């Protein structure tokens, strides 16, 4: 379809952008809206500043996000630091909203029990969130069977006692901006890998886990998909591909597999990376895959490195939107006028959180003031 023909189809869906204004929700104090774009240009976490932005493309926003800073457990003597969560939903917003409300609480619970932060604590938090959501699916199976087809990628970052923990299940990504002392430029260091069937390593992992299933990954319309349906191999939710009892009526036929399965096709276990932070580590860019579809790691790091920190997440989102518009041979100002739902033909929901790292603060082990902020969830009325 040519760009001009496509524009004629979507032009009735154009709308005027809302004027940016303060968010009336107290938990998002100081945040603003501009049409489908929500942002908080600057705030302070335990180890420096942060910037946050979300833009909606789907009818219902499927991205959810949060930043928590201060106590990471319920114990006064427990670990302190900063937690970031990016939850990129698919099939609907229910799972990402659930993770946004529960995963951090489970992390605090297990950190209290273990009296510290660890890979085990993080794994337990992911799996407990998964178990509770699947329990919810079971309870609502007859009244809301479509809940079995909803899932969410989960990307978590934790900074505690000078150590960075990254946990990922799905295809969101975190990239570190590290100062090169020789050139004084920021180099990009990808700290996570995606669990997406487009990657050969993921396809090989799936084939090794399901040696008797020749159709575990299928090339469909030039896109690799698991069972011809989904691209991500790890997620919270997606009960219909984890438990056969949810892969039958009354679930919609497009989600039901023709052959029964005995073991889960997808799983919720995150891959966890741990590393010490160093003085040359300048900032971290956490984002759902909607950003990385349009910007490379290097492009994103250069934008952060070459511009003021205030509003940098919003700048990254706008850079991605400019690229999305360019790919369709249209102007960014015209893209902004296209309403949610139809907007998904141009780009995905995009969430970005940029954490700046003050090495003097990272090296300190003192207590930190508390912060709890969730990104816009798409449910508020336009301002």
Describe the structure.
Its EC number is 3.1.3.16. Belongs to the PP2C family. One of its GO terms (cellular component) is membrane. The protein has a domain at 41-54 and 62-196 and 232-308 and 349-374: 4-Layer Sandwich (Phosphatase 2c, domain 1). It is built from 9 helices and 16 strands. Helices cover 25% and strands 27% of the residues. The model is unreliable at 1-28 (pLDDT under 50). The two termini are 35 Å apart. It has helices spanning 3-10, 94-114, 119-139, 200-209, 289-292, 297-305, 312-327, 332-335, 359-362; strands at residues 32-34, 37-45, 48-55, 63-71, 80-90, 151-160, 163-169, 173-179, 186-190, 217-220, 223-226, 236-237, 271-276, 281-287, 350-356, 371-374. The strands form 3 sheets. A 7-stranded antiparallel β-sheet has the order 1-2-3-15-14-8-9. Strands 4, 5, 6, 7, 12, 13 and 16 form a 7-stranded antiparallel β-sheet that branches. The longest helix has 21 residues, at 94-114. It has 383 residues and is of the alpha+beta class.
């Amino acid at each position: 379809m040519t760009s001009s023909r496509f524009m004629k189809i979507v032009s009735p869906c154009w709308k005027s952008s809302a004027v940016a204004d303060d968010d009336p929700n107290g938990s998002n104090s100081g945040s603003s809206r501009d049409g489908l774009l929500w942002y908080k240009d600057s705030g302070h976490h335990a180890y420096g500043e942060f910037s946050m932005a979300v833009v909606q493309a789907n009818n219902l926003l499927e991205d959810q996000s949060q930043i928590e800073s201060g106590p990471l457990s319920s114990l006064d003597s427990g670990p302190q630091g900063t937690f970031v969560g990016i939850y990129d939903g698919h099939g609907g917003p229910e799972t990402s909203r659930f993770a946004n409300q529960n995963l951090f609480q489970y992390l605090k619970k297990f950190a209290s029990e273990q009296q510290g932060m660890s890979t085990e604590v993080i794994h337990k938090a992911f799996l407990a969130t998964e178990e509770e959501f699947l329990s919810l699916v079971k309870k609502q199976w007859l009244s809301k069977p479509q809940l079995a087809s909803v899932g969410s990628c989960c990307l978590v970052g934790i900074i505690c006692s000078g150590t960075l923990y990254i946990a990922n299940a799905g295809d969101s990504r975190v990239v570190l901006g590290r100062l090169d002392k020789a050139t004084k430029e920021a180099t990009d260091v990808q700290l996570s890998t995606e669990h997406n069937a487009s990657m050969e390593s993921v396809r090989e992992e799936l084939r090794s886990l399901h040696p008797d299933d020749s159709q575990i990954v299928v090339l469909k319309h030039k896109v690799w998909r698991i069972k011809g349906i989904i691209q991500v191999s790890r997620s919270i939710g997606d009960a219909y591909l984890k438990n056969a009892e949810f892969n039958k009526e009354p679930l919609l036929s497009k989600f039901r597999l023709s052959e029964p399965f005995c073991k889960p096709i997808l799983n919720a276990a995150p891959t966890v990376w741990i590393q010490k932070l160093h003085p040359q580590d300048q900032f971290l860019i956490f984002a759902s895959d909607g950003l990385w579809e349009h910007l490379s790691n290097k492009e994103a790091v250069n934008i952060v490195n070459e511009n003021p920190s205030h509003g940098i997440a919003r700048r990254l989102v706008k850079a991605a939107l400019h690229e999305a518009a360019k790919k369709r041979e249209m102007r960014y100002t015209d893209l902004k006028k296209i309403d949610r739902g139809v907007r998904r033909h141009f780009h995905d929901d995009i969430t970005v959180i940029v954490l700046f790292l003050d090495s003097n603060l990272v090296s300190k082990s003192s207590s930190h003031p508390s912060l709890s902020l969730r990104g816009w969830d798409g449910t508020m009325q336009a301002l």
